[in-house]
Amino acid sequence: MLKEKEDEAISFVSEVCWHYYVNGMTQAEIGKSLGVTRLRVNQAIQKAKALGMVKVQIESPFLPRVEMQNALRETLGLEQVLIAPANRDNYDFHTPVGAALASFLSRHLETAGWRRIGVSWGMTLQCAIAHMARQECPDLEIISMIGGTTKGAVFNSFGIASGFAERLGASYSLLAAPIFLSEGIDREAFLGQEIFREHLGKFGTLDAAILTASDISARSYLVSSGLPSQAHAEQLVELGAIGDVVGRFLDAEGRNVSNDLDDRTIGITLETLAAIPEKILVAAGPHKVNVIRAAAKRGLMSMLVTDDVTAELLLRDA
């Protein structure tokens, strides 16, 4: 654990130095980009000098990852990319990126000024919660952006919203509805209830959104536990769907795949999601490359948190 924290600290110092010495950014610009104070940027630069990292060039084993982050940011047209190193011998596409998100949020929340954060669901976000240090953010509200399933997994939308709130000392609001309405239920009448009108109205006031993405396979929690039937998954594939974001299925170009499920989905719309100022997509794994690219084309993320295995595939296939 101590070694991981040391590596994380040196990684941060390396990134600061890259922006300062190579990209020519000011300390204030770096602080804004990384979500830290100018003082912390200055301290990182001084630490780099003391460690002998800053000479004619920056010497650090983390620089290839910083270069990859910049390349992927430009390729996908994003504001920021964070790449976690994966264990290639025992590959886990949840834990490293979850831990990277936890580290980023712990820093960013100090200066971001967020009042409302929307969250989706998934094991990756559960991993992030497990790695987060406790903070006190009494003015922050965590808002679930999608309905849930009847299965009580901790990474269901209900568990994720309450889990983030507990770690951050924040309040939370749950969308206490199924992610898909049963056939025959009047959607307008259902969502017209006051409890849902109030919750759905908060989507337009979100400062940030934390998202996951999935493909259409048994590895997807939505496909394995949320879809009404396997027939729906087969139909989605036939219609060109390659994955989902917040329960909305996309084709390879990021367009909605319309079928009866889309009209029955309870949660934030892609149009509302795209308008949120900061959108952090947390996703890794070779099976998610296509849906990550589709989400970028649709403008559903401003920041990507992924691992180096996935980043290499995204860059190779660009």
UniProtKB/TrEMBL annotation:
Q: Where is the RNA polymerase sigma-70 region domain?
A: 20-48
Sugar-binding domain mapped to chain residues: 65-315
GO terms for biological process, alphabetical: DNA-templated transcription initiation
**Any idea which UniProt keywords this protein has?**
DNA-binding, Transcription, Transcription regulation
Q: Which SUPFAM superfamilies match?
A: NagB/RpiA/CoA transferase-like, Sigma3 and sigma4 domains of RNA polymerase sigma factors
Q: What InterPro entries does this protein's entry cite?
A: NagB/RpiA_transferase-like (IPR037171), RNA_pol_sigma70_r4 (IPR007630), RNA_pol_sigma_r3/r4-like (IPR013324), SorC_transcr_regulators (IPR051054), Sugar-bd_dom_put (IPR007324), WH-like_DNA-bd_sf (IPR036388)
**Per UniProt, what is one Pfam family of this protein?**
Sugar-bind
GO terms for molecular function, please?
A: carbohydrate binding; DNA binding; DNA-binding transcription factor activity
Its family remark reads: Belongs to the SorC transcriptional regulatory family.
How is this protein named in the record?
DNA-binding transcriptional regulator LsrR, DeoR family
Native organism = Alloyangia pacifica
